[in-house]
Design brief:
With 264 residues, the chain is an alpha+beta fold. It contains nine helices and seven strands. Helix 5 packs antiparallel against helix 9.
Length: 264
């Protein structure tokens, strides 16, 4: 097999894995073909390989394909070895304790922005978690925080052009309007998503920077609550609490993480 064929095979395998993520009831071969755009014979071969390796299983009753617990265990093991719980959770729990709101952590990488940890607030009004989600840069508070740390020329490349998907009536879909928003974020060093991806929810995005020079945005914290609770005074209070707690957070612990996004 040529190196090109081998790489193409790996790429197809990950396409199958990616469409199975979140499909807890499983998918049929036909559904996987439709979602991946691969031909049926390729999907069948990939599923056989993944089943033989123990990463995919077939439901005895429905005959649908789903990711196995072996696959999940590898993910949890990797997260554990990265030290995410030890490094971040005390910080997230303190923020949740002081604000009472849902706290979510998103890490910034060259491959995107990903929500990887959360702590529920004590308030009875719950906000839907984005844990495990790949964040929309232009519509989330943490996404806009990440974009604000890039020059506008790189922002366009990260977004893949100037056509921005619309999630709610408040989503910014015009690139020039987004640039104006990013300039404000650069001045204030926090971002707001005002019902831009989740209707009735306002989120504050707050940055965690590296302590080297030039500084890099390593991660972002999203603190979200129903819109009627998030007036200007409440947002200012949340920003103040975050900075107070950040002073007790040892950013140097993140040196083992390959985080950040190049501004080039």
């Amino acid at each position: 097999m040529s190196s090109y064929s081998a790489l193409a095979s790996v790429d197809r395998t990950f396409k199958v894995i990616e469409v199975l993520i979140g499909e807890v009831n499983g998918l049929s071969v036909t559904e996987i073909v439709h979602k991946t755009g691969l031909d049926k014979s390729a999907v069948s071969r990939i599923l056989i390989t993944l089943k033989d390796a123990g990463y995919v299983e077939v439901d005895d009753r429905t005959r649908l394909n789903r990711l196995s617990f072996k696959f999940l265990s590898l993910t949890y093991k990797h997260i554990r070895e990265m030290g995410i719980e030890d490094i971040f959770y005390p910080f997230l729990e303190k923020l949740s304790e002081r604000t009472g709101e849902l706290i979510q952590l998103a890490v910034v990488t060259e491959n995107g922005l990903f929500f990887i940890a959360k702590v529920e607030g004590k308030n009875t009004l719950k906000v839907a978690s984005m844990l495990g989600e790949h964040a929309a840069y232009h519509a989330t508070a943490v996404g806009k925080m990440a974009l604000a740390n890039l020059p506008n020329s790189k922002v366009i490349r990260v977004l893949g052009g100037e056509q921005l998907p619309k999630y709610t009536e408040n989503t910014i879909t015009d690139i020039e309007t987004l640039f104006e928003e990013l300039e404000k974020i650069r001045r204030e060093d926090y971002a707001i998503a005002n019902e831009e991806i989740n209707k009735d929810i306002i989120a504050v995005g707050l940055p965690i920077y590296s302590n080297d020079e030039p500084r890099r945005l390593l991660a972002a914290i999203a603190i979200a609550a129903p819109n009627f609770k998030m007036d200007r005074d409440r947002i200012n209070e949340i920003v103040s609490i975050f900075h107070e707690e950040l002073e007790n957070f040892d950013v140097s612990l993140l040196k083992t993480f390959s985080l950040g996004i190049s501004s080039d």
